Amino acid sequence: IRRSVIRGTGHYLPERVVENSWFEDKLDTSDEWIRTRTGIERRHFAEDGQTTSDLATRAAQAALANSGLSAGDIDGVILATSTPDFTFPAVATMVQANLGIKSGFAYDVQAVCAGFVFALANADAMIRGGLANRVLVIGAETFSRIMDWTDRGTCVLFGDGAGAVVLEAQESSGNSADRGILASDLNSDGQYRDLLYVDGGVSSTGTAGQLRMQGNLVFRHAVEKLAKTAHTALDKAGLQTSEVDWLVPHQANLRIITATAQKMELPMDKVVLTVAEHGNTSAASIPLALSVADREGRFQQGDVIVTEAIGGGLSWGSVIIRW
Ligand code: ACO
What positions constitute the catalytic site (predicted)? Predict the structure, then answer.
């Protein structure tokens, strides 16, 4: 059977780093509050004029280099974002053009913070279905563009960045010991729209809008749903929690990550953490964490990696990878 294997990873973070203390003279907040309530210490913000497709292109180039492939080897680009350069065309097509790819498909997936998990499952289905052989799967965001800088409950949480993986078709016996994406679990429940949304858009206000969030309610859903989706995906893969080598969670809040690891009975030394350095980069957070951990040489071939995320929609899910 065909299976999708991660052949390479890459990421890009804008050069501008903003420490928690930067917010202290603008808002009634403190480094202490942000650190203890979220685990965030600093984040990167894109420069003026630097767009989501710019960040995504850099991450994609890094992933290609890491894979030992050239742009011509890629026959699909799937990009997760909620902060596209333009309403259309898809950011994926802009990255495709920047890389000089002229064939295959390119489109965006929008599932907010769960976007990369959705895009990865989508790319895996395309590969297993025979629609592509090598897909660049990218998560890229410039959430700094949709912040309400007067709302201390949201603007201290988010950062900009991009991460990418190259997913490649490989023949497999179908055994869970073989490399590749083993299983996915995706969920959405649109009745929770008001918990987390952007209050503008093309067909409503005609403006880009700003992010609105009832953080404590999102927090509760996250703690309840993330361990559950990870367990469901592990079940589908025929694996036990004891067989998990790494949890690579969406990096929204250290307290959510810790609670999820606890529910899964995973020690924190099996959890990849980037939230302190990156903040919440929405769809970019998981591919960023994968790429950072990969650069540090933390993953061994054959390791079981659990990714999970929840975000606006609500949408949430998990993908299980045999590295
Ligand atoms: N500095 C100081 N005080 C603050 C700040 C701040 N930056 N932000 C909020 N507070 C205050 C609140 O006003 C509140 O004060 P009050 O009690 O006087 O009203 C108090 O802190 C507690 O507020 P809560 O919202 O209950 O704090 P909580 O512990 O829940 O932390 C946080 C807030 C960090 C937002 C948390 O709820 C969270 O991380 N939620 C999940 C967010 C998330 O995971 N989003 C994921 C998806 S993102 C996406 O899809 C785009």
Answer: 113, 250, 280
